[in-house]
What we know:
- The structure holds two protein chains of two kinds.
- Chain A is an alpha/beta fold.
- Chain A has 19 helices and 21 strands.
- The relative contact order of chain A is 0.11.
Amino acid sequence: xxxxxxxxxxxxxxxxxxxxxxxxxxxxxxxxxxxxxxxxxxxxxxxxxxxxxxxxxxxxxxxxxxxxxxxxxxxxxxxxxxxxxxxxxxxxxxxxxxxxxxxxxxxxxxxxxxxxxxxxxxxxxxxxxxxxxxxxxxxxxxxxxxxxxxxxxxxxxxxxxxxxxxxxxxxxxxxxxxxxxxxxxxxxxxxxxxxxxxxxxxxxxxxxxxxxxxxxxxxxxxxxxxxxxxxxxxxxxxxxxxxxxxxxxxxxxxxxxxxxxxxxxxxxxxxxxxxxxxxxxxxxxxxxxxxxxxxxxxxxxxxxxxxxxxxxxxxxxxxxxxxxxxxxxxxxxxxxxxxxxxxxxxxxxxxxxxxxxxxxxxxxxxxxxxxxxxxxxxxxxxxxxxxxxxxxxxxxxxxxxxxxxxxxxxxxxxxxxxxxxxxxxxxxxxxxxxxxxxxxxxxxxxxxxxxxxxxxxxxxxxxxxxxxxxxxxxxxxxxxxxxxxxxxxxxxxxxxxxxxxxxxxxxxxxxxxxxxxxxxxxxxxxxx
Amino acid sequence: xxxxxxxxxxxxxxxxxxxxxxxxxxxxxxxxxxxxxxxxxxxxxxxxxxxxxxxxxxxxxxxxxxxxxxxxxxxxxxxxxxxxxxxxxxxxxxxxxxxxxxxxxxxxxxxxxxxxxxxxxxxxxxxxxxxxxxxxxxxxxxxxxxxxxxxxxxxxxxxxxxxxxxxxxxxxxxxxxxxxxxxxxxxxxxxxxxxxxxxxxxxxxxxxxxxxxxxxxxxxxxxxxxxxxxxxxxxxxxxxxxxxxxxxxxxxxxxxxxxxxxxxxxxxxxxxxxxxxxxxxxxxxxxxxxxxxxxxxxxxxxxxxxxxxxxxxxxxxxxxxxxxxxxxxxxxxxxxxxxxxxxxx
Lengths: 528, 345
């Protein structure tokens, strides 16, 4: 019995709506090892994690623990078997205190009452090890994303699981925090805990794991011990993603000498942003790299009129400054597609209804009549163009993630976007849709739109963007363009601790120079 | 999604013909139940289906029905307005007092409607400013307005002295073509008109979008605050208007008038296929729902059931309706799943 793996998954398949998330997934994690599962977002990692956590039940296939086939029908069944999972959207309670979140449903009692002293005593060591220095009595919502992630991990560890499933744990963590986490994981491993580490970052996994399984389109394509992995195989895994990105289209940016409208941001502050300064031209895909909390989402929110800027000036191609609200943004063809706010669709309404949201809902043009027939026509056109395999009258809630995202983008395409803000548009969707969305991004840029792209996958930024600006702690940490763009370098740029890099990088010095030279000067230089 | 390249579509081949099963309108359920009830009561008590009795029924259902039709909009933006009954009452009292004070009846009536709209705007503005659901705000304003009506009306009924022939209240108590009471005509026109507004205008689209997913709607650039404010103003105006009609038809307003209207209106809307979860609504359904409630109420009295049982019956019917709706949703979900499976297979 001891030679059978702690947990093994055999030929698991799971269909979510019309979308096959897991097709034929197998893996076996040995006792006391760290097993990394590497794959693009949308490869099915999160589904696998949710299957392991007992949230989803696989359609077919088997899960074995200690060689015995078991059923993980609900989260409690998984917990009873010693499985703890930290999922990407962890079920935490932002209004309750950190302590309460750490001991959800297992609050230690003293004399029949919940004892917070007991909770504190049990968690203080672990929190220190993880480097979480927050006030444990503060509501969780006041913590920043990285700290919240650490709380989620600590909560799982406090269950003293035999198997810990981590789904992209380092996405929100900076380098020091991930280092701490890895140290904790290493120690727990030596005490016999097994870790299933799901990530899209190869380098992270190579440094940490004993065993690596590569996942693609809901299947395992390679599974090997870390020590047996050859250099060529490593390179192969690294290259898997490169083929995804379409070639740049011949766009306005290739036409020299034309005066192109541009968007200029100078000294923008507010939220986490402090004195951000850059320009972007029509036809350009400008990447914005940054960890959660670095200010990228604040920047998007300001450009979209969702958040007020404290200071600074922005000049849009239409000559106006920041929109005052989202309605004004939509009317000025400033568009934001975000993966975070519930995906921005009306689930109980048809695709046709959803695709009218900006044209009919935001704008005051044309007649006051809403014609369902016209909406259906519009939807049929977009469905055809974006290859959404559904009927205009199908409910948006029934769509697979890839198609949802396409609908979320398509509602803006109807008005001819001038500025497109894309916040992780390809996250968590299947590879086919991902490629189509990449193609769409290229098309938007080629048609003269200013495209801003933020992504948590740095390879996506380097693969698609003409230029990438890195943000860290609300400031521009650097800029890279053309051949200088490299996923690893970008990651270093955004994740280095603030204390070590006070001196500005050469590129940001260039930016500072632009500030002094004045906006007009900078505009000319950019136009040339 | 696995068979991404399975069916390459040729350029210009157009979208595939939409194959869709016929979808029953949401009002089907309430219409069927109403027909069964009326048939049953007519079979038990012949006089029930006499035209005069049915017309009386319609007239009784008109006032709560008008309020219910307005409530559909409020429910469609995922809110509940508790103050409608109080607004109804206050508008009637204010109009009556203005008239007694010698102000032109038309102006007094208009003042009642405007007052209702103004209260709606206040409700909406408070909900927006305090960032609380409308139900919370209107719980407060409902009590406040109720108290205000008592103060203004001195806790007694108000009956304006009948004045000249051709004033608004005379019109409201009259009959169109000699048979249809004015309140019934207004009720039917309002239900039809607001149904069109909800489903065929830009404003109606915004209302549905806001209720379906407020965050998504705001994200798409819909001015959800304005939509909310407008809907509540319209609701207030309709409630005030209903109060005026009541005053016109009855000639007076007494303290208990409009008391049970809120819950009646919400129940009627729910009967008619409007959902509390927002985003969907049917003004016509709500109108028929109000009729259904009235049929149960007066039908039971006619059959000879003790009046004490009537509210129990209405309540049970509402619970039954919700259960039927739940079953219907499950059935539709199953069917959609089967259809999807069929497409894949």
